[in-house]
Amino acid sequence: MNNCGDSVVVAQPLFQVEGQGSIPMSSLQLHIQEIPVEEAVSMNELWHSRLPVITNPYSAHTICFGAVYKNCFFASAIWTDPIARSYNGTGRLELRRFAIANSAPKQTASRMLSIMTKIIRKKFPEIWMLISYQDTAVHKGTIYKASGWEVGGQKKNIKSGWNSRKRNDMQSSADKIRWEKKISSCQVAVSSKKEQIEYEQYELAL
Questions:
Q1: 3-class SS at 59?
Q2: Contact 9/23 with Cβ under 8 angstroms?
Q3: Structure pTM?
Q4: Could you identify which of 28, 43, 80, 205 might form a hypothetical disulfide with 161, taking C-beta atoms 3.0 to 4.6 angstroms apart as the criterion?
Q5: Going by DSSP bridges, is the β-strand pair 72-80/129-135 parallel, antiparallel, or unpaired?
Q6: CA distances from 191 to 86, 88, 187 (A)
Q7: Sign of dihedral through CA atoms 125, 35, 174, 194?
Q8: From the CA atom positions of the chain, what is the Rg in Å?
Q9: How many CB atoms are located within 10 Å of the residue 23 CB?
């Protein structure tokens, strides 16, 4: 891939600067499609305001999306199985990163969430709940509220994960809100309250 600046809109197969192509006037003009993990990771590095780095974006249910207009990407999203082991195998899928170019039209995030949910429901019928984490220092959770997500929990920053694992310093030290979206009635619960507590502690170190 080729990139041409700090505020890059990505095209297939090449990167293009935002000014080199047309800018969509409406989010309805964007085509939401699956994209390779590597492309999504590269776009996240360019556009994500707080979490440009993502560790281990591969899992059994990894799926990535891009929002495209006239061969240029204006947003990307990376979904994987939840990082914490206590949620693995419970039918949950985590939105690990959601990065949008500054030139993307209004409502891009809401439209992407809606279409991604439909695609995930069809591709992974075993997934019954979507989860995502809001960084309270820079976001208000507006896109989740507008898309019918509900608050599943709020946790203070604990600055570290499980003592049994060596972790890198957190990219964001802000408190986090967990948002949830139920997309199916096929529910699989976390196996125990203890594991739920461990999960909440571990995920804050991501």
A1: coil
A2: no
A3: 0.76
A4: 205
A5: unpaired
A6: 7, 10, 12
A7: positive
A8: 17
A9: 16
Separation CA 124–CA 79 (nearest Å): 12
> What φ, ψ does residue 129 adopt, rounded to 5°?
-140, 140
Sequence letter at residue 5: G
3-state SS class at 182? strand
Q: Which domains does the chain have, with CATH numbers?
A: 8-203 (3.40.630.30)
Strand ranges inside the chain, DSSP E:
8-11, 15-17, 31-34, 63-69, 72-80, 92-100, 129-135, 150-155, 176-182
Give pLDDT tens digits for 86-144.
Answer: 788 899 999 999 999 999 999 999 999 999 999 999 999 999 999 998 876 766 788 99
Measured CA to CA, the distance from residue 177 to residue 143 in angstroms comes to: 13
Q: Cα(84)–Cα(72) distance, rounded to whole angstroms? A: 34
Residue 59: C-alpha distances to residues 56, 101, 167 (Å):
8, 26, 19
**What is the Cα–Cα distance from 9 to 154, expressed in whole angstroms?**
33
Q: If we measure between CA atoms, which residue out of 154, 204, 152 comes closest to residue 181? A: 152
Question: C-alpha 62: how far from its chain's center?
Answer: 11
Strands 72-80 and 8-11 come out as: antiparallel
Looking at the chain, list the stretches that DSSP marks H as alpha helix, in order from N- to C-terminal side: 37-47, 108-123, 142-146, 193-203
> What distance in Å separates the CA atoms of residue 200 and residue 195, rounded to the nearest whole number?
9
Task: Return the minimum-mean-pLDDT range out of 69-73, 86-90, 186-190, 202-206.
Answer: 202-206
Strands 150-155 and 176-182: antiparallel
